[in-house]
């Protein structure tokens, strides 16, 4: 097992990156001490900021897990953005359409529907790949881009709440909202479910036959096919799971945080999930601290802008410096060392060598 | 380079007391190895898998560094810290597994890293092409500098590697098991080239475990066993028997004899199989008819490109997307299996050792226990909890039976070639199977393991399996097969009885297309 060493390495990288961020911050800031304080300590200064930071990490954990589920099988879901957004809209619509459902039923049904929609959206790309060798990277991205436009239209058009001055749907009934566990912050009870899901995904990937087969397809698809594993299934299934996690992230954001589907509210959740998965070393449990780190930097930047008069661009810059470093490390650790040195490349799906 | 400090004239490479222990597994791979290689000679190093030959080569190539000892090149002590450094010292290496960039052209591959440039600093393709053409002509190769390397045959790829070494003006050519991938005529051609190069002043270090070849090509021979040099001398001092004895130590593997069993009912039938591959008008397989009976080993042989690869992929259902069965059918125990997937074949009792051991036969990045677990898991429900302990135990029991000494949690990519081989065998041959497809059984396998593999195959045969062996190695086809099918240009030109064995000459002639036209169709003993 290389986990302990890997964790140590990631930890060190994070520390080094934070230090560098600190240096940049001191160099570019007008009021360095105040900026540093708010950037790095801001999220911990009061329960409200702290809770919000934790709350914003929750959907990132889900999208990160979604990326892990696909990445472990060497399929790639670049459609996270659209899947989150669509999942959110469908969850909202279910709640709005069935206002008389009991709270628990509405929550379960709307989250299930959001998950399902995300799963279908991504699953299509998997299916196309299995059927016609359509590049799943491109098809998931394009499908998602189209889905985003459709959701945008629905929110701005037929589903718009005329009473609100936001471009948003009406709010869902209060009994469908998830319990806030650290009021007045946004952190809601959904976090427990997400942590449980991370454990379940870990068990699935590493302790079941199906998870084993999925990973085998990821490390060498030709070998998997040869060994009698149904490789076609593991092009579709990981995409379905991935999309499901994304859709659920959208649904939970609505029921836990926003209560209504606001146009563009989820921008970035899909892409950032990829970064989170990389930092989390492509492990469902690693995704949790990775999402927290991401949320922490985001919250710190906000705090620095708000309280230390730092310009938004500078805050983003510092955030980016730290983030690129950590992500690059995650990326590098995924390139097998022998792969570069000894030319043990992974053969393409139908790669053939001549005798 | 020409400066000489007291070393005997004419020693190109001198190794002094090289010792190397691998820290990962504690194996003493080289134990006080000392060796002289003279200018312009062809020097062979022979030994079983795990004798330490490859480690020694990796030390020469700068991929591994010795724990102690000294390397002297033409009188100068050399510290070889990287392949680049090795290349600078005039050492050129051809590895068992080629280091070529498949999507690049021949010329691009040859000049890679040392490209001729135009005045603007761009790759000067004209000059690159010209250099390649000249060098190829000098050694008598017929290769088009503009072909994509991925489209070449294995022997042509080897030629590209060789030209690449000449382009880098290598003086000491090191070839690691270069004949493994070649047919007999290609081996002869390679040997001719090597002799020419040696004649032109290059020194050749030739690593192999094929004694017949070594005896025919080398000027001098060094024998390694378990990391040590156990004998060396002029080729004339050795013969095959003596070399075998030295290589093996006290254990002498007796070549097993094929048990004679009366074949039973037909198990696997190929009827009129015609296969088209994308982009080629001419079918890759033309009307193949072949039946394998219960308790029978049928060997299929031919030169590379005669359709063996396509036959292997079709029988194993790995052809998908690379070819289409346009007529004919495959039947396993009476059932039409033409359109089944590999997954479905496996469930019907199909065991398969592919010719491509490294990429198809194992998953290099996955652990040994994961690699061995596939057939066990296949029998389980999808979502049942599988403990690591259970897979580990399964791995350890197979490892014990097949003598694979390694921790089951290590990635298979860290194992030696011999152990990778055994991993595949352990997985494929430890379960009862109705049909066994075995491609190139002993490619890259030493004598001891060859005997083990043959014995396993004979045991499967005795147990009533139908065994289909596909191989370009005539010797093993002759040893193994009850019947021998010879392929030429996608057709089976003749099916010969294996008892008494046909002559090598006869098979060789058929492989090259001789007698492909309705002559006397000899199917049994005369």
Largest interface: A-B, 34 and 53 residues
Q: Averaged pLDDT of chain A, please? A: 87
> Mean pLDDT of chain B, nearest integer?
85
Q: Tell me the fraction of residues in β-strands of chain B, as a range.
A: 15-25%
Approximate shape of chain A: globular
Describe the structure.
- The complex is a heterodimer of chains A (355) and B (526).
- With 355 residues, chain A is mainly alpha-helical.
- Chain A has 14 helices and no strands.
- In chain A, α4 crosses α11.
- Chain B has 526 residues and is α/β, with parallel strands linked by helices.
- Chain B is built from 17 helices and 20 strands.
- The N terminus and C terminus of chain B are likely disordered.
Topology:
The complex is a heterodimer of chains A (355) and B (526).
Chain A: H1 3-28, H2 32-41, H3 47-71, H4 80-97, H5 103-132, H6 136-156, H7 190-207, H8 209-219, H9 221-226, H10 233-258, H11 269-279, H12 287-308, H13 312-332, H14 337-341
Chain B: E1 11-21, E2 28-38, E3 42-46, H1 53-60, E4 68-73, E5 76-78, H2 83-88, E6 91-94, H3 106-111, H4 125-138, H5 154-167, E7 172-176, H6 184-199, E8 203-208, H7 211-217, E9 220-225, E10 228-234, H8 240-248, E11 266-276, E12 285-293, E13 296-301, H9 308-315, E14 324-332, E15 335-336, H10 342-347, E16 350-353, H11 357-361, H12 368-378, H13 388-402, H14 417-429, E17 435-439, H15 447-462, E18 466-470, H16 474-480, E19 483-488, E20 491-497, H17 504-511
Parallel strand pairs in B: 3-8, 3-9, 6-7, 7-8, 13-18, 13-19, 16-17, 17-18
Antiparallel strand pairs in B: 1-2, 1-4, 4-5, 9-10, 11-12, 11-14, 14-15, 19-20
Helix pairs in contact in B: 4-5, 12-13, 12-14, 13-14
What keyword list fits this structure?
heterodimer, A: 355 residues, mainly alpha, ABC transporter involved in vitamin B12 uptake, BtuC, 14 helices, 70% helix, disordered C terminus, B: 526 residues, alpha/beta, 6-stranded mixed sheet, disordered N terminus
